[in-house]
Amino acid sequence: MSFPYSLVVFDLDGTLVDSASDIAEAVNRTLADWSLPRVEESVIRGWIGDGARALVTSAFEHAGKRIDLEEVMPGFMVHYAECLLLYPTVYPGVVETLQALRDRGVAVAVCTNKPERFVRPLLDALDLGGYFEVIVGGDTLPERKPSALPLLHVVEHFGLQPAQCLMVGDSATDVETAVAAKMPMALVTYGYLRGFDPHAVKGIQVVDDMRELLAA
């Protein structure tokens, strides 16, 4: 079966990889540095998706602690690096889908708000790195998702038009990004939805398992 797109651009955390426990541990180690109580992983999952600075801001707001973000971020990034590969897992169906897309000649890329320097090590540790020619992180360009810039940067690398490509993500941020880039969109239901209902968005494909993409 042919696939209707020449390129699929994937979000990372909550779409390809479940890294919430590692991210939560980095957040909690940072809170401990400031003598603040730990937060349940289920709560922290609701803060993931808008980049590291937004994540830390949410954590300290939750704790009721006013902080200078510039003072906190260096310590958080140390913990983030230390926790990057503690317990990450690949979601079911991801490897099979990536391989099937490759077999059909479809290019794949990653566009995430995770700091770029952490993306390749995480993918490589999970044996996913070989699939992706292009990776754009949250600090690769002057703007991050939901700006269209990162997504359009990927599209331009392959010499394509947005209509020839599909974005796959798990959040309202990803939807906003795809809309801004005028790119077709698919949403997974298993990621960090943060209360967002994927079925409430018109004109997108909703999948419970990544392998359902192949039937697009």
TrEMBL record:
<keyword id="KW-0460">Magnesium</keyword>
<comment type="pathway">
    <text>Organic acid metabolism; glycolate biosynthesis; glycolate from 2-phosphoglycolate: step 1/1.</text>
</comment>
<dbReference type="InterPro" id="IPR041492">
    <property type="entry name" value="HAD_2"/>
</dbReference>
<comment type="function">
    <text>Specifically catalyzes the dephosphorylation of 2-phosphoglycolate. Is involved in the dissimilation of the intracellular 2-phosphoglycolate formed during the DNA repair of 3'-phosphoglycolate ends, a major class of DNA lesions induced by oxidative stress.</text>
</comment>
<feature type="binding site">
    <location>
        <position position="170"/>
    </location>
    <ligand>
        <name>Mg(2+)</name>
    </ligand>
</feature>
<dbReference type="GO" id="GO:0008967">
    <property type="term" value="F:phosphoglycolate phosphatase activity"/>
</dbReference>
<comment type="similarity">
    <text>Belongs to the HAD-like hydrolase superfamily. CbbY/CbbZ/Gph/YieH family.</text>
</comment>
<feature type="binding site">
    <location>
        <position position="11"/>
    </location>
    <ligand>
        <name>Mg(2+)</name>
    </ligand>
</feature>
<dbReference type="InterPro" id="IPR023214">
    <property type="entry name" value="HAD_sf"/>
</dbReference>
<dbReference type="InterPro" id="IPR050155">
    <property type="entry name" value="HAD-like_hydrolase_sf"/>
</dbReference>
<feature type="active site" description="Nucleophile">
    <location>
        <position position="11"/>
    </location>
</feature>
<keyword id="KW-0119">Carbohydrate metabolism</keyword>
<feature type="binding site">
    <location>
        <position position="13"/>
    </location>
    <ligand>
        <name>Mg(2+)</name>
    </ligand>
</feature>
<dbReference type="InterPro" id="IPR006439">
    <property type="entry name" value="HAD-SF_hydro_IA"/>
</dbReference>
<keyword id="KW-0479">Metal-binding</keyword>
<protein>
    <recommendedName>
        <fullName>Phosphoglycolate phosphatase</fullName>
        <ecNumber>3.1.3.18</ecNumber>
    </recommendedName>
</protein>
<dbReference type="InterPro" id="IPR023198">
    <property type="entry name" value="PGP-like_dom2"/>
</dbReference>
<dbReference type="InterPro" id="IPR037512">
    <property type="entry name" value="PGPase_prok"/>
</dbReference>
<keyword id="KW-0378">Hydrolase</keyword>
<dbReference type="InterPro" id="IPR036412">
    <property type="entry name" value="HAD-like_sf"/>
</dbReference>
<dbReference type="Pfam" id="PF13419">
    <property type="entry name" value="HAD_2"/>
</dbReference>
